[in-house]
Design goal:
This protein is of the alpha+beta class. The chain has 19 helices and eleven strands. It is globular and about 85 Å long. The N and C termini lie far apart (88 Å).
């Protein structure tokens, strides 16, 4: 009798699992969207993280389905569905016109992981209030205040480079530079990563972006079973990274309050934030400082690295940019000034082209708050569904960028930009939820490139990865291999 009941229970369980899997297999078909048949447990992402970066698969799907429908389906881990939107007009609606229905990113976070409750992830009213509170931090006026700190540290970058061998691994050097910048601008602390190989700030940055096997498993659980992950209090931030930043902010805040110290940095601005009559809590300040630090050092260093990579390969472009830099600096007594940087149009074009090919943010994520009927179709994205905008696939679409694999900064001249759809270039997103720190990121990237190109000539070495391959597990677009370039003093 007991054996019979046990077998019956097994049969019911097996049937339930089979039904669940079958319903997942046909999810997009039932909603009228094109897709590819998934496979357990990776959905359509079997080779992501081992052979390819996620941007590669998004581009494959984009190329297959773009001309067939304005959106298609992609099965993620355990066939978790994501609606991938490819029509630029629909993308504009989602990011701007219909923003209220796509105001959240739908990214996992939990109260138990203090560092995950930051502006990039938090939702609804808390996000809106925090965004309004932090926006004044990133005005042109505030950038001018932070400018001199970045410039001082960039002088140290030049001195550091002068002491290096002929071939330099620029990816790590630039990451150390931006780590020093953000640590100082965000917390008023000297991380000294350029000169200290044991800098804790640099170690923590490396650890956060290193998705080892344990973190990959946690990410798998979070992507597939968010509700269960929250109940289990699964945290994606490594505990030692979390402990370090919580202690750093707590001690710095305590010291400043006790000694009535004011500094014109990000943390000082957070201390003065007033949210509906209330100051930020220590946890809120810690989370916002953390995301400013993480986003600020990684995205800017990656962008500058890709710029130097392309400038090394294209010596004519490097020389043209250097001429613009020297000509502009001459107008300002050969001093790097905020106003002078703003005049360097070709520098902005070079950065925009590097961001087109290898922008750190290759995929924008949103969540549908309600059912959303795609204009001029019968397709409906259901309430609660994940939505993806494959930025890198759009950036490398020959319809918008002829010969997309080539590095051509002139694509971003004012004349060429006005003839292109505004959603064809989205390195910082768009709409109310675009990157709040884009001005600062561009500023420190420009300063580093100006300093380096004024003092050095860059060219490929025997170790330069040509062609470049992306790191398959990186959460941003980052080179898999070290970026060794030949550096000659000017």
């Amino acid at each position: 009798m007991a054996v019979g009941i046990f077998i019956s229970l097994l049969f019911v369980a097996a049937a339930s699992i089979y039904y669940w899997i079958s319903s997942k297999y046909t999810y997009f078909e039932r909603h009228g969207f094109l897709s590819k048949k998934p496979a357990l447990p990776h959905g359509n992402l079997a080779e992501v993280g081992t052979k390819f970066h996620l941007s590669h698969v998004l581009k494959q799907f984009y190329e297959e389905f773009k001309n067939k429908a304005p959106a298609h389906g992609l099965y993620q881990f355990l066939m978790s569905p994501s609606f991938v939107v490819t029509d630029l007009d629909v993308i504009k609606d989602i990011l701007i016109k219909d923003f209220d229905n796509f105001r959240n990113r739908g990214i996992y976070h939990t109260e138990d992981d203090v560092l995950s409750n930051h502006l990039f992830i938090i939702e609804d009213e808390p996000w809106k209030t925090m965004r309004q509170s932090l926006s004044p931090t990133f005005t042109s006026g505030k950038m001018k205040v932070m400018f001199h700190t970045v410039l001082d540290i960039s002088n140290k970058l030049v001195e550091y480079m002068k002491q290096q061998d002929e071939v330099v691994e620029v990816k790590e050097v630039l990451a150390k530079f931006t780590t020093d910048v953000i640590s100082n601008v965000a917390f008023g602390l000297e991380s000294n990563s350029l000169n200290d190989p044991n800098s804790t700030f640099r170690k923590m940055g490396l650890k956060f972006f290193n998705f080892d096997r344990k973190r990959q498993i946690r990410a798998f659980i979070v992507l597939s079973f968010q509700t269960i992950a929250r109940k289990l209090k699964v945290a994606l931030t490594p505990k030692d990274v979390s402990d370090f930043f919580i202690a750093t902010i707590r001690d710095t805040v305590d010291y400043r309050r006790k000694n009535k110290i004011e500094r014109k940095d990000f943390l000082d601005l957070l201390l003065k934030v007033n949210n509906n009559g209330k100051s930020l809590t220590l946890n809120e300040m810690t989370a916002q400082s953390f995301v400013f630090w993480i986003a600020g050092f990684e995205t800017s260093s990656s962008t500058a690295t890709f710029c130097l990579y392309f400038l090394s390969i294209h010596q004519d472009i490097q020389e043209k940019l250097r001429t613009e830099i020297q000509t502009t600096l001459a107008k300002y007594d050969n001093q790097i000034t905020y106003e002078g940087i703003m005049e360097m149009k070709y520098l902005q074009m070079v950065i925009d082209e590097a961001l087109r090919l290898y922008g750190p943010v290759f995929n924008l994520m949103r969540k549908a708050e309600n059912d959303y009927k795609i204009p001029n179709t019968n397709l409906v994205i259901p309430k609660g569904a994940r939505v993806s905008i494959p930025v890198n696939a759009i950036h490398t679409d020959p319809e918008y960028y002829p010969e997309p694999e080539k590095f051509i900064p002139e694509r971003f001249s004012e004349e060429n930009k006005k003839d292109r759809h505004p959603m064809a270039h989205l390195p910082f997103g768009d709409g109310p939820r675009n990157c709040i720190g884009l001005r600062f990121g561009l500023m420190q990237t420009k300063i580093s490139l100006i300093q380096l190109l004024t003092n050095f000539k860059f060219s490929p070495s025997s170790k330069t990865p040509i062609p470049m391959v992306l790191h398959p597990t990186s959460v941003v677009m980052s080179p898999r291999d070290d970026m060794h370039l030949k550096v000659e003093k000017l």
